[in-house]
Amino acid sequence: MTTTQSTDPLHIVLVPGFWLGGWAWGDVVPHLQADGLTPHAVTLPGLDDVATDRSGITHDDHVRAVLDAVAPLEGDVVLVGHSGAGAVVHEVVDRDPARIRRVVYVDSGPLVDGASLRPGLPEETVELPLPTWEELAAEGSSIEGIDDAGLARFRARAVPHPAGVATGTVHLTDPARLGVPVTVICTSLPSEMLRQMATPGPPFHTELASLQATYVDLPTGHWPMFSKPAELAREIATAARADIRPPLEKA
């Protein structure tokens, strides 16, 4: 008797962090496709164009956008969240844990219930422009590994992030989310250090310690989709297939 692996596509939903649209995954997508995966790069509300009105866009809008991207997909779904998108994809899992096969956090992680990414911003703040490279480095967001051309493209295509998303509160209600496997790709912070800091309290206010997490080191800066796209794609593919059993041999 023989069995075969499912021929259904394995969907990789790629959600970028602050200031980025789906374009940010442009150098990663071809590698995932070459590996037989089906990637979907998401542009979240307010991140499509500089001229977009971002005044009314909320964290819930971003969660809904990812849920809408997942809804029509047939087959297994792996969510990939970079940086600030970690809070978004974790809440997507909470809304529908049975639908998600695995979550991959890229230099990111899930927030605890009630936390937000940028608490304390002035109420009148509408959007957050991309800071200078020096300001980002001071915040711990290294641009290591991105060449001058890559930095110029990043700066030219970046869009201010909606402040309502940054200050929005994460709402978690379904403990089944804790059973969804997680891979954390550590790029600007070594996994050994992250494990020690992965607590519900400061500085990260994360649920990582409560999850079935596998940690992977990919040393580079905060934006590996620009600095090491092929290597990032390889780690995403490995994580996506981590719990797929190989076909059984003929008995």
Characteristic terms for this protein:
single chain; 251 residues; alpha/beta; Rossmann fold; globular; disordered N terminus
Describe the model.
The chain has 251 residues and is of the alpha/beta class. It has one domain (11-240): Alpha/Beta hydrolase fold, catalytic domain (Rossmann fold). Helices cover 29% and strands 14% of the residues. The chain is built from 9 helices and 8 strands. The chain has a 6-stranded parallel sheet, sandwiched between helices. The chain has a two-stranded antiparallel sheet with strand order 5-6. α1 links the parallel β1 (11-15) and β2. α2 crosses α3 (85-95). The protein starts with 10 loop residues before the first strand and ends in an 11-residue tail after the last helix. 40% of the residues are buried. Residues 12-234 form the AB hydrolase-1 domain. One of its GO terms (molecular function) is hydrolase activity. Keywords: Hydrolase. This is Alpha/beta hydrolase.
Low-confidence runs: 1-5, 245-251
Which fold name corresponds to the CATH topology?
Rossmann fold
Mean pLDDT metric: 93
Order of helices and strands: EHEHEHEEHHEHEHEHH
Fourth-level CATH superfamily: Alpha/Beta hydrolase fold, catalytic domain
Strand ordering within the main sheet: 2-1-3-4-7-8
Question: Helix share of residues?
Answer: 25-40%
C-alpha-based Rg, rounded: 18 Å
Named at the architecture level, the CATH assignment is: 3-Layer(aba) Sandwich
Derived structural class: alpha/beta
Largest sheet: 6 strands, parallel
- Estimate nothing, just give the exact number of structural domains: 1
Inertia-based shape? globular
CATH class division: Alpha Beta
DSSP strand content = 5-15%
Keywords: Hydrolase
Pfam families: Abhydrolase_6
Protein name: Alpha/beta hydrolase
GO molecular function: hydrolase activity
